[in-house]
Amino acid sequence: MSQIPGAVSGADIGTILSALERGTVMVRFPARKRRPEKKLFCLKVDTFEVVQYPLSKGTRTVAEESIDIREIKEVREGISSKDFERLPDEAKKVDQYCCFVIYHGAEFRLTTLSVAALCRDECDAWVKALKHVTLAGNFASHLLTHRWLNKEFLALEPSGDSLTIGQIELKKYILRISSKALLNKARQLFTDFDYSRAGRMGVEDFFNLYHSTIHVKTIGERFYPFCADRQSLTFSEVQMFFREEQKDMRADDTVYLAGLIREYARVPNRTVRDPRLPSLLLPEFVNFLFSKQNSVFAEEYAQIYQDMDRPISHYWIASSHNTWVHLDCWEGPDGNPIIYHGRTLTSKIRFIDVIKTIKDHAFVTSEYPVILSIEQHCDIQQQRIMARQFKEVFGDALLTELVDVNAMKLPSPNALKRKIIIKHKKLDGTEETSGNIKPEEAGEEEGVTFNSDLCNSILNGLLFMQDPIDKNWAKHYFVLTEDKLYFTEQQEKEEDEGDKTETNTETLPSTEQHLKEKWFHGKLAGGRVAAEKLLTGLQGCQWSLPGTREYHIHWRLLMSFVRDGKYNHCRIQTKSEGGKTKFYLIEQTLFDSIYELIMHYKTNPLKSQTFEQVLAEPVPQQNSHLGKAWFHENLSRTEAEEMLKKVRMDGAFLIRPSEQNPKAGQKNYAISFRAEGKVKHCRIEVDGGQYSIGSAIFDSLTELVQYYEANPLYRRMRLKYAINEDLLKSLGEAESDDVYYHPIYYTFNEEKATPITCKALFDYTAVRPDELSFCKDAMVTNVEKHVGGWWKGDCGNKKQKWFPANHVEEVQLDEVTEDRQLGNLQQGAIDISGCTTEIHHLSSNNLYALKIVPVLKAECTEQEKENHVGLMVAAQSLEEILKWQKAIDEARNKANSHALAQMEKEKERKKDEQKKRIAIEMSDIIAYCRPVPFDENKSRCGLRVVDFRVYPKGQRLDSSNYDPVPMWNGGCQMVSLNYQTGDKFMQLNEGKFLQNGKCGYVLMADCMFDAGFNPLDISTQKTNPITLSVQIIGGRHLLRQGRGMTCPLVEVEVIGVEVDYNKYRTSTCKENGFNPVWNEGCDFDINNPSLALLRFTVLDEDAFGDANFLGQAVFPVQCLRTGYRSVPLKNAFSEELELCSLLVHLEMRSAVEEGEELYCTIRSLREDITRMSKQFQHMVRDDPTNGSDQLAEIIQEKQLQLRKLNSARQVVTQGGLLSRKHDFDHYLCTLLLPKEVQSAVFAIRAFNVETAQIRELVTEKATGKMRVQFWRDSIDAIYKKEPPKHPVAVTLATAVGRYKLSKLWFSRLLDSREANLSLSHYSSTRELEDYSENTFSSLLYLTLEAMGVRSVAADHACSHLGKAEGICTVLRAAAYHRTQRCVFVPMDIIMRHGASQESFIRAEETSNQSVHNAVYDFASLGHTHLLKLQTPRLIQVNSCDEMEHQCQ
Q1: Which uninterrupted H or E stretch holds 831?
Q2: Which of 246, 139, 296 is nearest to 1113 (CA)?
Q3: Rounded distance, CA 723 to CA 629, Å?
Q4: Which of 1190, 284, 1266 is nearest to 797 (CA)?
Q5: Can you tell me the distance from the alpha carbon of 1212 to that of 1230, in angstroms, rounded to the nearest whole number?
Q6: Contact 750, 741 (CB under 8 A)
Q7: Which of 285, 624, 873, 911 is spaced 20 to 30 Å from 542 by Cα?
Q8: Residue of 37 and 895 predicted with greater confidence
Q9: Which residues are registered as beta bridge partners of 463?
Q10: Distance (Å, rounded) from C-alpha 790 to C-alpha 772?
């Protein structure tokens, strides 16, 4: 019987959601091999979660597991999951039509929830509801905010029937949102928002607190020009913002704007707003600006907008490596092919299962063709099976014939819609023609690889090695090649697959879950007296604090707490029920475990005859660090360093007292550890019984150590080896007899340090003799890192001088060297040439060990030869270790034989096998896509009939990626990456294919089809360069994972053709990840926008000064929207972070707008610097002494030239920018003037904008006068050739000096602006005309002077033109002035027609004829001035002036 009231079929979605929120019982098939269990499942719409509860008789308290609906990838009906397959007998007992599977996860980790409903109606209801709530419309920003707040509030464990929180819970919330400023005033915030004055805060109070604190006033002030009352924006003001600032075509769509306003208008406690006059409060308006709805990515590019009828070789194609696009096919043991990454530890999957999955999902996102690249390792028979299965599974979707046999070019994506194309070798005439190609030229995809590829390894797998510190045997991954045995770092212990789907509370049996809780004190020495001593400092606490402890007699358990100043001890009793032990305080309420009992009484009151009490904060264990192996109570910093120097392994650590002076009565500690081959120290602050590193806070030193054993403390380093004297004695003093330190090994911790090179992000000028000076993009070499934020390095002829570390970034080279075949995972390697092997049985560990003793190198000392004992590896079975011994011996023998003859013989054998390993059936289904030798002529032809694909090297065992951008720029269609790796390069790939509806096909830039196109030479690229101005305003919800306050900074990067690479980094916003503000920005010159990507990265500066990744976003530059825009941030795997966003302002303009000659000079200089910098890096890498200093000085000199040219360009652009933004009409007119005077006129117009805005920007007359006085002083300083460092003043000074502009006109304009500050109306037409003459006409007089025009007629024309412009400006601004209750139409005209100022303010033009007549009369006055420009007198005077000029 259904648990949902009424028939589900036909029920509306609201009824279903309401029923599922109450919960239904379903059978859960667990991931681990356990029996299915009945659980209660609820769909929590308020928090956007699917929650699982245990099915018990008691009150439902603790949720066992929850799934974030945002992480649900698919809901699949039926029993198609491994959870059902593990328990086939149990699966037969349920109706498969009552079953469904939820696939969910994040960061490339997909897990399943497999359940069986009790009836089909309930299954249908769940499937329907889950598919509804995962629709895109339910992820709007304002809805996510509401659900996030609900989830955060419930996470604070509110108590009571009305669900309220106290000050302690509020502080927890503030710590979680990472805001030090809010934490400092937490008590005041609680008082302000506790509207009931009951000492508790409800959910509505909590919501109001969030909306009040998230808004930053300084951000809101930016929009005062669009907000007349500085409180809210009316409909017309929102419309004006969309039209003028955002340049949004929907500004005139009143339906859209009205809907948007209704969507973001909240404030439930405020007076209801008139629906006929929609408006937004300023905080609501800013909420919209931060939302995804205002994303910087233009919506029109989220659709398929490109021409999809071009040949398929004209498109970049999204491609993965070793996923479902590239299929690594191997012979299966049962005669059927399998797929896995060959000769590695990856799982083996049946070929038929893979292609069935591809069929089900190939065209879900896009209808365009899917290309399957086959890496063939199967014999002829299994290839026939593959061909047959391809046809059976794909059917008509499989492309087996050419679309048009007569076509001279490849078909288009439209012509190949819903087609699956197989890429494989083909036995035809083309194959015979290229039959003489060497097998290596076919590349990795055809099973023939270079010797350096690890897929060609002899043997690989897991073996044991003894840890030199703790002497434990741990697993390492080994790879045997022809001459070396490589091994990785110690393998992390992997959880069972099922463990990943369970909650942390299930890592222990339910009856033992309390053992890992901080409130459990175990066998507490001293019994009740000790418990009361722990509670002594909490006498005044109104709420109980449980200190569960194990009593010292008969191992009984007591719960101790304090209430009203009295100590209480309640015995936790047990009884047997149904063969199971139950725990209770009150016999009527039984629990399965102590953990469930405590959790119950934290939310439900403990009742007795005299009181009711809810448990609150627990008392953690005190001084639990005493006696720990890593704690040293009397150890100095020097002694700690000496101890750690004896253990040369990263992760070795100890904790000791800090030697820095603590506060009175307070003792601080320090943690000393080894990382990156050096000993480092970090202070642990102690405050109020809590321990903190940076902003991460812990209740005990034990908790701190446990946390950093599981999480990185410094970069990638976790705490691993606790160091003390006993351990050092066990290791002994002779380090040379340790295999890890022997010189024959390439050991990770001891490998030779490579010189560090850094690139300057900003200019820096030395302030002391021992400091470096450098320009932006300068290279600093031989860098030595030091603590304290200052490093040493070389730049130019300055050697080992200090410089600030936050002004540079380290240049990292993405290379895999011959000795590091396993990349970053490699720990060491041993040369097996001439080695000897010997097997031993280790009875104490029941392991079989293989001792490998290589031939020592000639440079080894006699002492090293004497002490060397060889490398010892082990396996759990004799067969396994014999297999490795045999493989090593065979490899050694081959290495000592005639290698060249063997290699030639091997090549010939591979050629013979290659000719016989292609089945005819496989060849017959191949159309268009097959591997061919690289032909440089075909690659450069404009027709582009060949697709090119690149993929990661086989040495990338850690699945790292390479930079795809140079490949795309060079014309590669398919740039394969490891999709499972969330690194920068995969993020660039996601951003690249974000456009064109995310269909996986993006049309290449037009410039790439030009015959002379060269991605490395910008002069060959026919593009329209732009300048992109980016201003980072602020952010929201930039929260770090784990403990501590976030200290965010933002990095903005342009990535495209080589000359366009540029980066800008903001300052760090200290301890505020909730709502940081930067208001910083820069300009990027982008020569080829069609190939450029814009990347935003948010970093978190930790206690060591390192910047750790928080979030990112990547967009194609051509898909950006300008104006104030939101940047929704994503995690490393390009999955959206909840409510995490930046607010930025973007402006895009032509790069040659300020002068083509200047721009070209700057571009050429940048190209030279880029080219020389690359040359410099190669020189430093190969031979640092080979003239690199001289080249560094040349680069530095060119950087100085570039800085000067950029400064000059800024002077030119500043006036144009202000004019275009605030005075667009005159900006367009100025563009019609001769180019040589445009910069001067832009400077004059920028001065006008600055002074005209004073009245609107100030609220008090005195402030306005101060601003006018500033410009008076600036004009005086300009004429004294000492201009202030204000962009407009600098620009204006250049114009004054060059064109000898008269100071009179500037003075007249400023006098009129000052008089206008207190003006409420014009009494007469003459008063307005005088004002216009002194302002508008003065600007025109200055323009004439800049053009070199000295004419009475021209001056006369400018006088009348300025007056006409003043009248026109009053008329155009009438609507805005009406909102300010001001009227600037002269009073004599208003009174002449019997109108009044009030009639103008009420906008009664249509009904009041007098207002209409007054406006007509006023406009006619302006027209009269324009007519005077065409009078015969003016023309005659102008002619006389010209004649006089000619006579002279």
Answers
A1: strand 826-831
A2: 296
A3: 7
A4: 1190
A5: 13
A6: yes
A7: 624
A8: 37
A9: 476
A10: 11
- Name residue 415's amino acid: A
Residue whose entry in the numeric block shows the structure tokens 């992480």: 71
Question: Which residues, including other chains, have CB under 8 Å from residue 200's CB and lie 6 or more apart?
Answer: 160, 164, 165, 166, 194
DSSP string, 634-680: S--HHHHHHHHHT--STTEEEEEE--S---TT---EEEEEEETTEEE
Q: What is the pLDDT of residues 946-982, one digit of tens each?
A: 456 777 766 666 678 889 999 999 888 888 888 888 8
Distance of alpha carbon 970 from alpha carbon 1017, whole angstroms? 11
In angstroms, rounded to a whole number, what is the distance separating the alpha carbons of residues 1066 and 1081?
8
DSSP 275-308: TTS-EEEHHHHHHHHHSGGGBSB-GGGGS--S--
Stretch 890-912: mean pLDDT: 66
Report the distance separating Cα 650 and Cα 676, nearest Å: 7
**Beta partners for residue 109, in sequence order:** 106
* 964 token code pair: 């795809």
Largest CA distance in the chain: 125
List CB contacts of 430: < 8 A, sequence separation 6 or more: 930, 932
Q: How far apart are CA 933 and CA 1219, in angstroms?
A: 58
Q: Which of 1208, 906, 1167 is nearest to 1057 (CA)?
A: 1167
Question: What is the percent of the chain where pLDDT is above 70?
Answer: 81
pLDDT tens, position by position, 1132-1163: 999 999 999 999 999 898 877 655 666 777 77
Q: What is the per-residue pLDDT for 324?
A: 54
Task: Please check whether residue 1373 is in contact with residue 1343, taking contact to mean a CB–CB distance below 8 angstroms.
Answer: no
Q: Which two tokens stand for residue 1317?
A: 């500050």
Q: What is the arrangement of strands in the sheet containing 566-577, beginning at the earlier edge strand?
A: 547-550, 557-563, 566-577, 580-584
Q: What is the mean pLDDT of residues 919-924?
A: 82
Q: How would you class 454 by CB atoms within 10 Å of its CB: exposed for 0-12, middle for 13-18, buried for 19 or more?
A: buried
Sign of torsion over alpha carbons 886, 888, 893, 899: positive
Task: Report CA-CA distances (Å) from 441 to 933, 934, 1170.
Answer: 6, 8, 33
| Two tokens, residue 1385 | 């139409």
**Radius of gyration over alpha carbons of the chain, in Å?**
38
Residue 51: both structure tokens together:
């929650």
Amino acid identity of residue 546, one-letter, is: P
Task: Quote the strand ranges of 206-353, DSSP E.
Answer: 232-234, 279-281, 315-317, 326-330, 338-339, 349-350
Quick one: which H or E segment has residue 1138?
strand 1136-1150
Short-list 46, 47, 25, CA closest to 126: 25
Residues in the chain, overall count = 1448
- C-alpha 287/C-alpha 291 separation (Å) is 6
Dist. CA 765–CA 1203, nearest whole Å = 13
d(CA 1116, CA 297): 8
SS3 content of the chain, % helix, strand, coil (to 5): 40, 20, 35
Give whole-number Cα distances, 771 to 778, 803, 1190, in Å: 15, 6, 20
Helix (H) or strand (E) holding 1116, with range, is strand 1107-1116
Position 1078 scores a pLDDT of 94
Backbone torsion region of residue 997, taken as left when φ is above 0, otherwise alpha when ψ lies between -120 and 50, otherwise beta: left
Distance CA(935)–CA(1015), nearest Å, equals 19
The rounded distance, in Å, linking the Cα atoms of 395 and 399 is 9
pLDDT single digits (tens) 510-533: 667 776 677 777 666 677 787 777
User: In whole angstroms, what is the distance from residue 576 CA to residue 564 CA?
Assistant: 35
Average the pLDDT over 42-52 and give the result: 91
Both tokens of 1357, joined, read 């024309």
**Alpha carbons 923 and 427: distance in angstroms, whole number:** 6
Residues annotated as part of the active site: 321, 341
What are the CA-CA distances from residue 634 to residues 628, 631, 638, 640, 653 (Å)?
14, 9, 12, 10, 15
In this structure, are residues 838 and 850 in contact, taking their beta carbons and an 8 Å threshold? yes
Cα 207 from Cα 193, distance rounded (Å): 10
